[in-house]
Amino acid sequence: ATLDDVKARGTLNCGVSTGLTGFSAPDANGVWQGFDVAVCRAVAAAVLGDPMAVNFVPTTGQTRFTALASGEIDILARNTTWTFSRDVDLKFEFVGVNYYDGQGFMVPKALGVSSAKELDGATVCIQTGTTTELNLADFFRVNNINYEPVPIETNAEAQQQYLAGACDVYTTDASGLASTRASFEAPTDHVILPEIISKEPLGPLVRHGDSEWGDVVRWSFNALVAAEEYGVTSANIEELSASAGDNPELNRLLGAEGELGAMLGLEPDWAKKAIMANGNYGEIFEKTIGEKTPIGLSRGLNAQWTEGGLLYSPPFR
Amino acid sequence: MTTMTDPPGQGFRLSQLIYDTRYRSLTIQVVAMILLMLLVSWLVANTVTNLHALGKDFDFGFLTQPSGYDINQRLIAYDSQSTHGRAAVVGILNTLLVAVLGCALATVLGVVAGVLRLSNNWLVSRLMAVYVEGFRNVPLLLWIVLIFALMSESTPAPSAFRGDTPSASMLLDGVAVTNRGIYIPAIHFGAPFFDNGLYNWLIVLIAFAASVFAVKRLSRWAAVKQEATGDRPTTWYLTLGILVLPVAILFALMGAFLDLPSLQGFNFQGGIHLRGSLIALWLALSLYTGAFIAEIVRGGILAVSKGQSEAAFALGLRPGTTMKLVVLPQALRVIIPPLISQFLNLTKNSSLAIAVGYMDARSTLGGITINQTGRELEGMLLLGLFYLVLSLVISGAMNVYNTSVKLKER
Amino acid sequence: MSDTHAQTVAYVRDTMTEQREPPLSQTGAYKWILGNMLSTPLNVILTIGSLWVIWSVLSHVLPWAVLGIWNADSLSACRAIRTEIYGADASVACWAVISERWPQLLFGFYPPEGYWRPVLAFALFIAAIAPILFASLPRKMLWLTVASPFVMFWLIWGGTVWAPICIALGFVIGWAAIRVAGPRIGALGSILLAILVPVLYWVVIAGPLASGLSAILPIGLDQVASRDMGGFMLALIIGIAGIVLSLPLGIVLALGRQSDLFLINKVSVIFIEVIRGVPLIVWLFTASLLLNYFLPPGTNFDLMLRVIIMVTLFSSAYIAEVVRGGLAALPKGQYEAGAALGLDYWKSMRLVVLPQALKISIPGIVNTFIGLFKDTTLVVFIGLLDPIGLSNAIRASTEWNGIYWELFVFIGLCFFIFCFSMGRYSLFLEKKLRREHR
Amino acid sequence: MQNQATETVDRSHMQVSDEIAIQITKMNKWYGSFHVLRDIDLTVHRGERIVVAGPSGSGKSTMIRCINRLEEHQAGKIIVDGTELGSDLKNIDKIRSEVGMVFQHFNLFPHLTILENCTLAPIWVRKIPKREAEATAMHFLEKVKIPEQANKYPGQLSGGQQQRVAIARSLCMKPRIMLFDEPTSALDPEMIKEVLDTMVSLAEEGMTMLCVTHEMGFAQAVANRVIFMDAGQIVEQNEPKEFFNNPQHERTKLFLSQILGH
Amino acid sequence: MQNQATETVDRSHMQVSDEIAIQITKMNKWYGSFHVLRDIDLTVHRGERIVVAGPSGSGKSTMIRCINRLEEHQAGKIIVDGTELGSDLKNIDKIRSEVGMVFQHFNLFPHLTILENCTLAPIWVRKIPKREAEATAMHFLEKVKIPEQANKYPGQLSGGQQQRVAIARSLCMKPRIMLFDEPTSALDPEMIKEVLDTMVSLAEEGMTMLCVTHEMGFAQAVANRVIFMDAGQIVEQNEPKEFFNNPQHERTKLFLSQILGH
Ligand SMILES: Nc1ncnc2c1ncn2[C@@H]1O[C@H](COP(=O)(O)OP(=O)(O)OP(=O)(O)O)[C@@H](O)[C@H]1O
Ligand SMILES: Nc1ncnc2c1ncn2[C@@H]1O[C@H](COP(=O)(O)OP(=O)(O)OP(=O)(O)O)[C@@H](O)[C@H]1O
Ligand SMILES: [Mg+2]
Ligand SMILES: [Mg+2]
Question: Least buried of A113, A291, B246, C395, by fewest C-beta within 10 Å?
Fold first, then answer.
């Protein structure tokens, strides 16, 4: 089973993108950083007790599924959209959604466009190898307008083409649009159109057929979400876990009560370690892609359900 | 042959399998055959097990399912509701298109650069050396990416053609060079013979082919005349007339008119759109391969010794005639075989189209289709087969040429 | 000087004319410019055209490159400095990304304190190929050549020193098998044996032996995972490993293609043509997407190794064609002399034919290597972080998001320097060979 | 080295006219700053057969190649058949089609048959009908005694045969002057004779010939003047008999002693 | 062309034994459908020195090459040293290491030094220790009078020296029979003598030799039988004196008149 393999190996093999701003990128020291990367680290901390015991395997849009299917990686945390066919036909198991995204459009302000429906005849830059192409084709067909797709392999090229004016519109997931726009010299010259033409629930996934491992990853991630819901942060977690508090759910989460860890085949303090790796979901979000970062994404749909968002961790019991 | 080499009746010994030259080769081949079969069956068995474990089967049915994605560059009708199979065909045609265009331009560039590199103009020959070495020694992938980016940054966006005082304007009112590609006028027919546009063009093509044939006859006639009288009659105006008139008449009959591209909305509309990705890939492939061809051409010309042109000059032949009758025919024998293998390389390298989003066979069949359907094995197999057949056809043509030249030499 | 007439033919020069300087039109810069650049109207046009090309390229590139900013920690900082010095419209390079990230472009994520290891390994490689390329060096150095693959492997990947030693031991065992069994069961049998025995040894004994030895005597370097390697180091490793490993296979294929055994010949031809007929990028996708299908269920080894295997198969087809050229260049008399002395096929190949054929093939092999080295950039499409892949990764960091040309220019320049000098070297070898072969 | 055949030449009818075929005055040439030809003065009358001798590097080839502008001279005058050689392309063309040249290495066109080699220039330069050109070519091929090889390629011929084809090829242009640059020095001894025989028969017909050669037997038998060059200058010239028996200049003596002693 | 040195051979002790070294019976060979060797019958006794002569293309080389299986014969029998040459590899190996061969173009291995050329086969075929093989090699190199060149490469030697090395290389295998295929025809005249001298001294030691050559002086001086071949057949064979002075067959007469007259 994957869990035993990972424990025996001592490291977690985690598939990430070869580079997507805010979600996964190596820094100057070669240490991978980002929102997707944090999920991997949390799982590694929960399973192995060490958030740094992760082998990051850069994958491209083309190679990611094969890498997972062949066992080269244990988890794929590479902004991958959860779709029916991927889940059922390609035989993977999505363990949750760590970012609710949707495909959007960015255009230069100078074009004077205010809605995607006005884009008849426009040239659209898209990043290939994702669901984007399919969404785009559907959107324009449904609205019965023409467009000229310019498929581009990497975000950097797409960005360069868009800035040079080789396409009128750049479309990708809204989070990508925001981070791309943030890197422009004059971000305010570009607008992100209001239409979100697709649902893009991005989440980590594992292979079909190893539900134990799926549970480990799912609940490690849920722990991060729950931690935010209950106000557990990396700052106060030591204190909270030192003694059992009066919130039984919190106690179960932090291992002070019940045997959740053992049920998963992990240490009792697995969730604590997962949270301590990078903090809770909210902390990770703020650090990697939140409003204080150059990427500047707002929580939006990714707020806790208690705050009108979609993040909703099932109960720990 | 009357006697046997070995006395008969000695009987067959097992050791003869190894030590007898007559059986030895058979033994080796049988052993090799068995090993080969073992290897192949091992691979096949593994594949079957693995496919089974993954719950996949080996099935080309996906080719008949709708693809769901759009392709901008297409030579045949296609939309997102067409099948994966059709998408593959679109990709294959795109590969062939860029390969043919690339081979043509690379040859031109290579010949020009190769000849100029031999020029006695120091500046020009140095410049060509820089071109050749620069392109040969940097990976093609980098060149494709760089040229694509360079093109989109150095040419105006369509929006620059807009407004009262546009910063860019169309050439001759019919050609627009933009960073999305080049728009050129298209020819349409007002009173076509057939509804299907393809047939109209087929007629034009047939007429043109007939003209070309007539021109060939004309030049044969001129050659015969030259043989008889020594003077070659001037035929260029006849040639021109034969080439242009029939097609022109056809055009007039069908009411041909130019469809000029014009700026409408976001883009130019009408005319023919040569996309930036095609042009970038085409240019990069041609420039890169052209650098190799330049070296081949230079080598070929140098291989024809200086004595040959001197002898021709001494006979009173002009430099142009010398080039045509003496140097080129000899140089071509040296040039053509490596030239064709460069064509092969160019064709294979066109699979780097992925870098600029040109939808060739690799990007459609071997890219998005595989990605959407998860049929790696089938997709890659088809793709490999396509390239293999293409290469075999090209190298087959080369072999035919080589033998024909060899026959002519002696 | 008198006119010479047919009638008074005789003439004897009394004073010899001295060597004179040529007229002004024949010397100096004037003649050079006139003769080289302005000799005909066409030449004048070409010269002006060239000058225009040079000017238009340099006038754009030079200021951008020369005025570039070297000290900044992000693209926005770069832009701020530029605005401060040159104004907002100026277009200047932001070389700071290179000065900050060059170790990554060269070594990938290799631990910085271990940089000496790949450097030493490549130095070792140079030392190891020297005796092959320069016949004047002492033959003893060939031992270094034999040992270097194992040492290089150990230096780069680290781990216990016993692993490479135990692997190397397999070759020794194979050699010993030939030595011991050869006289008894003949060449063919001993070759089979020399393949079988080491394979058995590697599969069954080598692993436990290595771990046993390292338990007793733990000597080793820190282990570095393949995925920590990137940049030019990755390109070099794949290129060198590909060429070195493909050499034996390529030689076998070349011999196979020359063989008059129908089956062997056809199998070699088919292998070579299939490999050469399909683009490398398709093979790389095969390595990353399909190789797992062909191997027993559960086998899984890292992508870099798979790429090296694929690249080895790929370049072996090209090497085979190069070696075939070398074999064909050998006069038939060499084969016959070997046979007449009583050398069997393998011995005369090993002792007489191959040493000569390979020497002739070296320039071709170097050229194949250059091609392969350039082609390693394609691994970016399967997610390995070669220089181009790294440039994408660098751009994905928040500091350098949006930077473009600088990285490509730097990478292109590095490739150019490397390939150009290799190409010159191969030319030099070719000339030398031609001299020696006359 | 001397060939008996050449001794049989009947010189009586080999008339030298007063008409001037080539006139070179004060011709100078430099290669870069190296002064190859220095103040060359030479008048060749129609029908003269001149042999140019001299040590290697003395400028013999260069001088001969200047005459049909394979090399450019930088000072002085060359008048061939009344036409001055300058940078005027028309004059160059005219002179080149009047002057035939035979090279040391034959320089036949390997991709054309012998017959095509011989008809190429007549057809393209003289604009002679092909049939007629072929007849002429066959005539000259018969003259050099290899008509039966007409449809072979040069590669299939021996060196001596190739050189004879080269001579025939030049003759097909009906030149009034023939230049030879060491036509026999790349040949095996047996083949030298067949080529020299051909040249002798040409001489007998009164062709104006300028011939760089080391075949002193040929010079003695055929030439009516021998020119000795050294260090880019004409050092001595004389009738063959005088030249060989009674050389005047030191260098000539030295040269002859080497050539003949050997 | 004849070499005086060869006249000095003392033939008295060059004994021919009764033992048979090579026996060829009814041997036939075809190249495709071309019948090169027709019913060759030849018996060579140990110690015999046989010269094979004949016009070009008559099959001399082919016959000699059949003896050590560089070419395969298709019918008939060849027995060398009591071992029949068939398709059995072991016999072929045995015969090849008993029979030395010297080629027209030396075929030295250019990548090995002279010494390595000579020790290669003894070490790898005869499995003789290197030291010993080198001693033997030096002995034979001394015999062919070039011990001082032992560490040079073949490219640094003259043709005659190379051919002598080729002879020494064969001798190092201690062959009982030596085959020579026109060993001197690729050499300059001066060098022919040194090679012939070497062969003469070999003959003096009683080596069985089968030698294709056009050096009739050598044949007269050394051979005890001359074989004349034409069109793939042995036309005549005789003692040298008889052969040269009194040829029987028409073709032999014609051939001798050409060879000797020339
Ligand atoms: N293209 C050239 N550039 C520079 N120097 C040259 C060139 N061609 C010839 N020379 C030099 O000019 C001199 C005369 O050369 P030329 O070939 O005329 O001599 P030659 O008398 O014909 O000698 P040979 O008997 O060897 O043919 C020689 O010193 C030669 O090195
Ligand atoms: N490999 C071959 N294939 C076909 N024919 C061959 C081959 N080798 C030789 N021949 C032909 O066999 C005949 C005999 O050749 P061989 O070399 O034995 O003649 P030779 O007597 O040695 O002549 P030479 O004195 O020229 O060496 C010749 O007609 C030759 O053309
Ligand atoms: Mg000369
Ligand atoms: Mg022969």
Answer: A291
Q: What is the CB-side half-sphere exposure of residue A174 using CA atoms within 13 A?
A: 24
Q: Do C415 and B133 touch (CB under 8 A)?
A: no
| Pairwise CA distance, residues D60 & B101, whole Å | 52
Instruction: Say if D6 falls within a structural domain.
Output: no
Domain boundary among C173, C199, C221: C221
Structural domain range at position E247: 20-260
Please check whether residue E200 lies inside any domain of the structure: yes
The CATH number of whichever domain residue C302 belongs to comes to 1.10.3720.10
Residue B14 has a pLDDT of 64
**Whose alpha carbon is nearest atom 30 of ligand 1?**
D57
Per residue in D79-137, pLDDT (tens digit) is 988 888 887 888 888 888 889 999 888 889 988 889 999 999 988 888 888 888 899 99
pLDDT one-digit tens code per residue, C336-384: 898 888 888 888 888 888 888 888 888 888 888 889 999 888 888 888 8
What ipTM does the predicted assembly reach?
A: 0.82
The residue written with tokens 């694509």 in the block is: B148
C236 and C383 both lie in a single domain: yes
C240 shares a domain with C379: yes
Residues of B in contact with D99 (CB under 8 A): 314
B58 Cα to chain A: minimum distance (Å): 14
Same domain, C179 and C236: no
Judge: D132–B311 Cβ closer than 8 Å, yes or no: no
**Residue E2, domain member (yes or no):** no
Q: Do C213 and C348 reside in the same domain of the chain?
A: no
Phi/psi at A44 (nearest 5 deg)? -60, -40
DSSP line for chain D: ---HHHHT---TT----SSEEEEEEEEEEEETTEEEEEEEEEEEETT-EEEEE--TTSSHHHHHHHHTTSS--SEEEEEETTEE-SS-HHHHHHHHHHEEEE-TT----TTS-HHHHHHHHHHHTS---HHHHHHHHHHHHHHTT-GGGTTS-GGGS-HHHHHHHHHHHHHTT--SEEEEESTTTTS-HHHHHHHHHHHHHHHHTT-EEEEE---HHHHHHH-SEEEEEETTEEEEEE-HHHHHHS--SHHHHHHHHHHHH-
* Residues 359-388 (B) with a CB less than 8 A from some CB of C: 362, 366, 370, 376-377, 380, 383-384, 387-388
Instruction: Indicate whether C276 and C176 sit together in one domain.
Output: no
Q: Give pLDDT tens digits for C69-113.
A: 888 888 888 888 888 888 877 888 888 888 888 888 888 888 888
CATH code assigned at E104: 3.40.50.300
Q: Taking the CB of residue B197, how many other CB atoms lie within 10 A of it?
A: 11
Q: Do C171 and C214 fall into the same domain?
A: yes
The boundaries of the domain holding residue C174 are 159-221
Ligand 1 neighbourhood includes D31 CB (under 6 angstroms): yes
Residues C315 and C364 in one domain: yes
Provide the number of CB pairs (under 8 Å) joining chain B to chain D: 86
**Count: domains in chain C:** 2
Query: Has residue A220 got a pLDDT over 50?
Result: yes
pTM over 0.90: no
Cross-chain residue pair A148–B267, CB shorter than 8 Å: yes
Would you say residue E15 lies in a domain? no
State which of C181, C199, C221 marks the end of a domain.
C221
C67 belongs to a structural domain: no
pLDDT digits (tens, 9 = 90+) for C47-75: 888 899 999 889 888 888 888 888 888 88
C191 and C319 fall within a common domain: no
Looking at the structure of chain E, the number of domains it has is 1
Q: Does residue B8 or residue D252 have the better pLDDT?
A: D252
Residue B287's pLDDT band (boundaries 50, 70, 90)?
A: very high
Ligand 2 atom nearest to E104, measured from its CA: 27
Which residue positions in chain D have pLDDT lower than 70? 1-16, 189-190, 260-262
The rounded mean pLDDT for chain B is 82
